[in-house]
Amino acid sequence: MPRRAGRRTNLALLGLLVLAFLTGVLAYGVGTPTAATVIVAIHGAAGLGLLLLVPWKAMIVRRSWARAASRRALATGLGILAALTVLTGVLHAIGVAPLSMLRIHVGIAVCVAPFLLVHAWGRRQRPRRTDLSRRTLLSAGALVAGAAALWVAGEGALRLTGAAGADRRGTGSLEHGTDDPTAMPVTQWFTDTVPGRTVDAIDVVVGDQRARIPTSDLDRGDRVRAVLDCTGGWYAAQDWTGVRLDRLLREVTGKRLPDDCSIDVISRTGYRRRLPVRDASVLLLASSVGGQALSDGHGAPVRLVAPGRRGFWWVKWVERIEVVDAPWWRQSPFPLQ
């Protein structure tokens, strides 16, 4: 019985760690409120659920400590990193160091992955009939319910105490700089950098049709209020002004483009994202925010505003717009440039 209980505990720990990692990655790509809220809730519950298994895992460690001397360093390192991952996640959730804690959390979580792979490889478990027994399923259900209860209790405590984390967006991001563009942090995707030369015109390419439009002509008075939700853990709602992408494309082509096309938005730095043509009516090439011209750090002279998408879709320093036949989803989920 103790051996079976130890096996179930280890499998449960592995399942929660994998679930937390996968939902953490998925949360980076989802910007729509409903989907993001569900994914982030599962992510948080999976992380907190690890705490419920600590007493059982402690008994397993005590039982095997003497005969597993060669693996102590690896197991200890994995345990410390997993504990730090949970701790930094909780600290971000309650609003501690909002501009850095999430990055620390993600960095430690990435370090957990190789430790977990090496640790689990030597303890591979074959599926057993008892893994689907009524007792096992009831235990799994109790773990899921307990993890969900911990997450709900934590969220309730944040709201009752009025902690900064109570105002987190569905993605887990904390508000920073709404209606104050100068207060918005200057961040970009980790593979991108602020270019050394300013873009003075953008190229619009649709098949054989080409147009070069000065950036000074891109403020057509089109305005949208949208939330820039950065994967760095912050968000800000702003009024963005410029020209709608469908309007710009219609001026170049003189017609409405078919919905099976896609739009490549390319930065001066080579950074790019591909979006569906059907979204062109809600996409904006912005030259100002909050009544002020964009700063260099925020994409001057023109950047893409993509409502409902995370910050890495909001291409800065736009230099080229190109309509392509390839589907928009035929690209890496996250930028690789």
Level of helix content?
40-55%
Number of domains: 2
Tell me, what's the shape? Answer: elongated
Oligomeric assembly: single chain
Rounded to an integer, what's the Rg over CA atoms?
24 Å
What are the secondary-structure elements, in order, as H or E?
A: HHHHHHEEEEEHEEEEEE
What is the terminal-to-terminal distance? 52 Å
Write the layout of secondary structure elements.
Elements: H1 2-29, H2 33-52, H3 54-64, H4 72-93, H5 101-121, H6 134-161, E1 174-175, E2 201-206, E3 209-214, E4 222-229, E5 234-244, H7 245-253, E6 262-267, E7 272-276, E8 284-289, E9 292-293, E10 303-305, E11 318-324
Parallel strand pairs: 1-5, 2-11
Antiparallel strand pairs: 2-3, 4-5, 5-8, 6-7, 6-11, 8-9, 8-10
Compose a concise summary of this entry.
The protein has 337 residues and is of the alpha+beta class. The chain has two domains: 2-172, no CATH class; 181-324, Alpha-Beta Complex (Sulfite Oxidase, Chain A, domain 2). It has helices spanning 2-29, 33-52, 54-64, 72-93, 101-121, 134-161, 245-253; strands at 174-175, 201-206, 209-214, 222-229, 234-244, 262-267, 272-276, 284-289, 292-293, 303-305, 318-324.
Task: Characterise the protein shown here.
- The protein folds into two domains: 2-172, no CATH class; 181-324, Oxidoreductase, molybdopterin-binding domain (Sulfite Oxidase, Chain A, domain 2), CATH 3.90.420.10.
- Helices cover 41% and strands 18% of the residues.
- It has 337 residues and is an alpha+beta fold.
- The protein has helices spanning 2-29, 33-52, 54-64, 72-93, 101-121, 134-161, 245-253, and strands at 174-175, 201-206, 209-214, 222-229, 234-244, 262-267, 272-276, 284-289, 292-293, 303-305, 318-324.
- β8 (284-289) and β9 form a beta hairpin.
- α1 runs antiparallel to α2, α2 (33-52) packs across α6 (134-161) and α4 packs antiparallel against α5.
